[in-house]
Amino acid sequence: MTYTRQLIDTYPAEINLDRAQLAEVIDALSACAQACSACADACLSESADALPRLARCIRDNLDCADICAATAAVLTRQTGYDARVTHAQVQAAAQATRTCGDSCAEHGETHAHCRVCEQACRETEQLLKDLLPQVEPSGQGPSRPSQAAPQT
Amino acid sequence: MTYTRQLIDTYPAEINLDRAQLAEVIDALSACAQACSACADACLSESADALPRLARCIRDNLDCADICAATAAVLTRQTGYDARVTHAQVQAAAQATRTCGDSCAEHGETHAHCRVCEQACRETEQLLKDLLPQVEPSGQGPSRPSQAAPQT
Amino acid sequence: MTYTRQLIDTYPAEINLDRAQLAEVIDALSACAQACSACADACLSESADALPRLARCIRDNLDCADICAATAAVLTRQTGYDARVTHAQVQAAAQATRTCGDSCAEHGETHAHCRVCEQACRETEQLLKDLLPQVEPSGQGPSRPSQAAPQT
Amino acid sequence: MTYTRQLIDTYPAEINLDRAQLAEVIDALSACAQACSACADACLSESADALPRLARCIRDNLDCADICAATAAVLTRQTGYDARVTHAQVQAAAQATRTCGDSCAEHGETHAHCRVCEQACRETEQLLKDLLPQVEPSGQGPSRPSQAAPQT
User: Fold this and answer.
1) What is the number of structural domains in chain C?
2) Chains B, C: CB contacts under 8 A, how many?
3) Around Cβ C47, how many Cβ atoms within 10 Å?
C-alpha cells in the first residue's frame, strides 16, 4: 500500500470521493509527472541529429510534468473541497496527458523512453477521464459545503 | 522592464500571442502564486483562536499557488504551442484565483494579508479572463502548427 | 518496475550513479513529497482544538514537499550532470526530511497521518544520506565533464 | 511595492530576518526561476544547428528554475522557522544560480536570452550569498524557537 493510500486512510474528516480511486489517480499523476521529467531529459541527451525533432516533445513533457504535479497536489487536499477548481484542473491534466502522449507516440519507434512515457500518459489520461464525472460541480447547489473546515 | 518581458522579446521564434499581454499575465501569475504562499503561511501564524476559521483559506491559497505556478510555466513555453493545453490550464487558473479571492475576501476585514492576497487574486483572474479568447483552440483546424519546432 | 526505473534504463547516455540506487531515491523523494502534502492537509482538517499545535508541522510538511520535489527533479536529470548542484540539493533534502520527520514524530501518538508521514521522511532521509558520498564533488578536478551533452 | 513585500509587512508574527532584504531575495528568486524557464524554452526553439550545443544550458536552466522556486517557497514561510533547512536550501540555490549563470555565459554572445538569464542568475546568486550569514544556524543553541507557532 503506497503512502498516498495510507495518508488518505488516516485523513481525519470526510472525503467526497472513493478513496481507492483517489489514491490511484494521485499515484498515477505523480508517476506520470516523473516519467515526463525523465523523458524530457532523455530527449535532451539524444544525438545532435535526433534532438531537433524532439523539441516539441520536450516542451510537451515539461508542460505535462508541471500540470500533473499541480493536479496531484489539488487532489491531495481534502480540506474545504471545491469541485469547480478540482474539475477544471483535472480537465487540464486530461488534455496535457493527451497532448504529451500523442507527442511521445510520434517518437516511440525510435526512442524507448518515449514509449515508456507514452504509456504513463495514456494510463493517467484514462484515470483522469474516469474521475471527471465524480468531480463534476453540481448544477443544483453550491459545489462546496457552506461550513468551513475544520470541523469543531 | 521585467526579465519576463526581456525573455519574451529575445525569444527566437514566432509567438502566437501579444507579447506585452503575455508578459503581464505571466508576471501576475508569479506574483499571485507568491502572494498565496505567503498568505497561507501568515494564516498559519495567526492566533489559536483565529486559525481554525482560516483552514479553508489556507487550502485555497495552496491550490491557487500551485495552479498559478503551473499556468505561468505553461504560458512561458512557446515551443510547439498547443492551444488546447493552454486554454484548459488558463481556465483552471481563472477558477483557482476566483475561489481563492472569494476565500480571502471572507477574512479581509480581520486579516490584512488576506486583503492583499485577495487583490492579487482578483487582478490575476481578470487578466486570465482577458487572455482566454486569445488562446481559444480554433474549431476549424489543428490548434497547433503541423510543423515541429524548432525551425530549421 | 516503476516508470522511474524504466526511464533510467532507457536513458540514452551514461549515468554517473548506480541506476537501481538512483531510481530508489527518486521514488522515495516523490513518495515523501506526496506524503508531506497529504499530512499538511490532514493536519489542516484536524479539530479546532488540535490545529494550532500543528502549525509548525504543517510548515515543515510544506517545506519538505517542495524541497523533495525539487530534489527529485534535479536527480532525474542526467544531461550535463553537475555534482556541486546535486550534492547541495541532496544535503538540503536530507535536512528537510530530518526536520519534518522530527516534527511529525511529536504528533505521532495523537495523529496517525503524522506517523505515516514520519516513516516516509525517515526512509527518504536514510536513502539521501546513503547517496551523499556518491554525489560528492571531486576535490581534484572539475565535477562535471568538460564535454557538453548531448553526444555527437 | 510588490505583493511579496506587502505580505511580509502584514505577517502577524515576528520575522527573524530583515524584511526588506527578505522581500528582495524572494522576488529575485521568483524572477530568476521565471527567467530560467523562459531561457530553457528559448534554447529549445533555436535552430537545429544551435540546439545541440544548448542541451546542458537547458538542463541547468531547469534545475535552477526548480531550485529557485523551492527556495522562494521556503523563505516565504516564517511559521516555525528552522535555520538549518533555510541555510541548506539557500546554499543549494546559490550553487544552482552559479552553475546556470556560468552555462548561460558560454552562450551570451550568440543568444540574447542567455545574456538576460545570466544577469538574473548573477543578481540572485549575489543576494543569496548576502543572505547566507543571516540564516546561519547558531552553534550555541537551537536554531528554532522552542515554542511552537502559532502564538496563543
Assistant:
1) 1
2) 24
3) 12
Which residue type is seen at D93?
A
Q: How many CB atoms lie within 10 A of CB C29?
A: 29
Q: Which of B124, B99, B120 is nearest to B42 (CA)?
A: B120
Give the residue from B64, B116, A50, B4 showing the smallest Cα distance to D31.
Answer: B4
Alpha-carbon dihedral A90, A91, A96, A98, rounded to 10 degrees: 110
Phi, psi of B75, deg, nearest 5: -70, -25
Contact status of A70 with chain B (Cβ, < 8 Å): yes
Instruction: Write out the three cell numbers for B78.
Output: 512557446
> What are the b/e assignments for B101-129, b being 16+ CB within 10 Å?
bebbbbbbeebbbbbbbbbbbbbbbebbe
Using CB atoms, which chains have 3+ pairs under 8 A with B? Answer: A, C, D
CATH number of the domain enclosing C37:
1.20.1270.360
* C70 in reach of chain D (CB within 8 A): yes
> Using the beta-carbon criterion (under 8 Å), do C48 and B52 form an inter-chain contact?
yes
Q: For residue A148, tell me if it sits in a domain.
A: no
In this structure, is residue B62 part of a structural domain? yes
pTM for the full predicted model: 0.94
The helix-helix angle for D19-44 and D55-76 (nearest 10°) equals 150
Q: What is the pLDDT along chain C (152 residues), one digit of tens a residue?
A: 999 999 999 999 999 899 999 999 999 999 999 999 999 999 999 999 999 999 999 999 999 999 999 999 999 999 999 999 999 999 999 999 999 999 999 999 999 999 999 999 999 999 999 999 999 998 644 455 444 444 33
CB interface of C with A, residues 10-69, below 8 Å: 10-13, 26-27, 30-32, 34-35, 37-39, 41-42, 44-48, 51, 69
- B147 vs D: CB within 8 A: no
